[in-house]
Amino acid sequence: MEAAALGALTLLLGALVLLVLLAVSKRKETEPAAGLAVPQESSAVKPSAVKKPKQEKQQRRSKDKNTQHTFSHPLLAATLKAHNGNVTCLDFSSNGKYLASCADDRTVRIWSTKDFMEREHKCLRANVELDHAVLVRFSPDSRAFITWLANGDTIRIFKMVKKEDGTLNFKAAAEDFPQKHKASIINIGIAETGKFIMSASADTTIHIWDLKGDILATLNTNQVTNSYAAVSPCGRFVASCGFTPDVKVWEVCFGKGGEFREVIRAFDLKGHSAGVHAFAFSNNSDRMATVSKDGTWKLWNTHVEYRKQQDPYLLKTVPCSSSEGSRVALSPDGRVLAVSHGSDVCLYNCESGDLEERLSAVHSSPLTDLHFDTTGLFLACSGDRAIRVLHNAPGHRAAISHLRTLLKKAQSEAMRDRLTQQVEEAERALDTLLSHAHTQPLS
Prior knowledge:
Layout lengths: L1 H29 L22 H14 L9 E6 L5 E6 L5 E6 L3 E6 L10 E5 L5 E6 L5 E6 L5 E8 L5 E5 L12 E6 L6 E5 L3 E5 L5 E6 L5 E6 L5 E6 L3 E9 L5 E11 L5 E6 L5 E6 L3 E6 L11 E7 L8 E3 L5 E6 L2 E6 L5 E5 L9 E4 L5 E5 L3 E6 L1 H17 L3 H25 L6
Antiparallel strand pairs: 1-28, 2-3, 3-4, 4-5, 6-7, 7-8, 8-9, 10-11, 11-12, 12-13, 14-15, 15-16, 16-17, 18-19, 19-20, 20-21, 22-23, 23-24, 24-25, 26-27, 27-28
């Protein structure tokens, strides 16, 4: 009996000793190492403080969502969200059906423009394998797009293939274009004629390529550095601007049989007193707009016979805010100009020069791209992970003003009646647009 009691006591004492040892051991584990300052609240490790990688990822996503930049304005038509990285470039297809966007999340997204006014904005995704696209441009037939690869420093072509169910699939070309640029790329473009592709880098180099990846011509802009370059919507011209206070325009010439002939200087836009940030063409290339470090934007008539030594002439100079990386977009009809400055967008009436709309903090960071759609109804811009689609209300007002001017000059009763009806319809459309815009939620 005593032996049993003694055994039980021994077991109890052993258990107590074991508990003490465990407590001491745990205390030593939680004590800070010598010489390290540990905050008071961290002196004990709480079970909840140990996070699994999956839990941390979910919390980061939740935090990003909570801190996501919001923007509200009566002209906001839609906010397109699908990218997981910052959107670097936008492009509308020439048939007006699609908007392409690329981001550093290794995807290109294709959006349907008919969904802009819907609550849901669906898109198709093209994956960029082992790289990401920084620039994207649609082909003239809207059945393919070209991209500039960030790491590959080259052009990759994607074909848009329609499947049996009517949906689109994307297939990259078997080979990328060869690497030719020695400086960082600033823009690419493909002629509406489908005859050539342009790529421009930040030094003074512009390459003109055929569609197979062979170089047709190389231009030295002699502008110290290039800040922007583009192909005109008509597909005839290539233009560039940079450190010098001018814009240089070349014509890419082809023979009657479609064979490449030469690239010749067409004309220059001279008038700014400092370097030019960017420029834009109207849809028919009869107008060009430029924005400069001198604090102005200028509108030019470029519908000239330059082969007869006729120079473009200046239509308007207007003070504006701009900065390095500013972008400019001219509506297809040339009536409205959009200028970006940091994360802000200003909309001007090109005829009067009046500032009609100033949209502040459209994105959480400076704008990376700015484009009107082919109808001139919308203006799309990028600057973070979202794409903002804005109503072109100034364009509606400019069209109404133009119709009223025609109405005053109308001589026949039939013409006056028709123009009066058009004015009334345009005013109702603008009222409907603005009333719908006021009901849009924060995005």
